[in-house]
Specification:
By secondary structure, the chain is α/β, with parallel strands linked by helices. Helices cover 46% and strands 11% of the residues. The chain has 19 helices and nine strands. Strands 3-2-1-4-7-6-8 form a seven-stranded mixed sheet, with helices on both faces. A two-stranded antiparallel sheet has the order 5-9. Helix 6 (128-141) links the parallel strand 1 (116-123) and strand 2. Helix 2 packs antiparallel against helix 3 and helix 17 runs antiparallel to helix 18. The radius of gyration is 36 Å and the shape is globular. It starts with a helix and ends in a 9-residue tail after the last helix. The model is unreliable at 25-111 (pLDDT under 50).
Amino acid sequence: MRIHCKVVVIAVCLGVFLLLYFLGGNAADDPLLKEVVEEEEEEDSNSSPSSSELGRDVAAKFARKPPAGLGVRAEEPLKGRKERKAINRGASVNAKSKLRSNVGRPVTRRTRAEEVMHLAVVACGNRLDETLTLVKSALLFSLKKIKFHIFAEDPLAPQFEERLNQWPRPVRAKFQYSIYPITFSVGNADEWKKLFKPCAAQRLFLPVILKDVDSLLYVDTDVLFLRPMDDIWSLLKSFNSTQLAAMAPEHEVPKIGWYSRFARHPFYGVTGVNSGVMLMNLTRIRHTVFKNSMIPSGLSWEDLLHPLYQKYKNHITWGDQDLLNIIFHYNPECLFIFPCQWNYRPDHCMYGSNCKGAEEEGVSILHGNRGVYHDDKQPAFKVVYDAIRDFPFEDNMFQSLFYPIQTKFLDTVNTLCGRIPQVFLKQIEKTMRKVFEDKVVHHIKPHK
């Protein structure tokens, strides 16, 4: 009898144990309980690794065997809610947790921002078409995207916007632009505006106006790119720790240079510099104190401009360019000099060829000052300008740009600058070949 009772007690205990085990196993698979367990884990961010492993195992089990007939939430929304809670509480990332590593991946996977080159130009009066031809030349060859900063008189601003927006969509995808009014932060605006050519003094105020731009290439409206702007933009990397701007010499030969013969004010170096093409690190300019002949302690760029003009206004001929020469006369360590082929003007050929860099490499940037794009005094310059102005964006550059230039140059060989056609043609031919190779040849797949 006693043995029988013991057997019954053991059987009852075993049955109760099996019942509890069965109920406990089902409870572990219950998605609602699983959700509570996971939320408790989320509340306790300092729980032991074993708890974290348990949470992942349960989540994995639920993903494999979703119970039917229950109002459960999908794993991803639940994970998203947990992620938001963790972010809102400023929870630290657990590198061992698969969930946390998935949260971190979209944040840490960053694409490098595309570098944009900045180019500024100032247009007043009848310079609309000339400026648009300049912009067109920069876009024809350049590789990186360009942001154009166009300073224009009020009547010209809507015309720029209308004309630029008419260009083909693939071309418009290569650039951005902003149009600004003509403004001068110090001194008399009318006086600044009439200092030399209309509005040319605006370039002096670019570091003050474009406060969010780090570096910039300024060019006159009568400039044409015959190779990618990327190449002169890369010269910024050649600046040493004190250099903050780059220009080309005004002349290569002191005996026939203007500054070396006629200037009545200080100027840079032996022949002065030409400001028609000026590469600037605006951040450095804004942060530098410039030596001068007025204040021993030095002045910032903005504070220097007006007193400098007041002191020398009766002695300067070329306006803002003369003021830049005076500034860099007293601060020569701040200036980087690039060779003449980056600012090639009629002065380099009308007295005989005196730009050796252009003879060797060809003209990189053509500067048609003296109005040579619009008269017949130097037809070699006009040939290049007319060809770029009239070139349709959609046409083949060799057929519709290079060959017309090459053909029309035959009519200029008896002129002072036309006697050296290779100077004008070498770089543009090289550039167009490279553009052709990059856009066509490298995209042709070999036949199998």
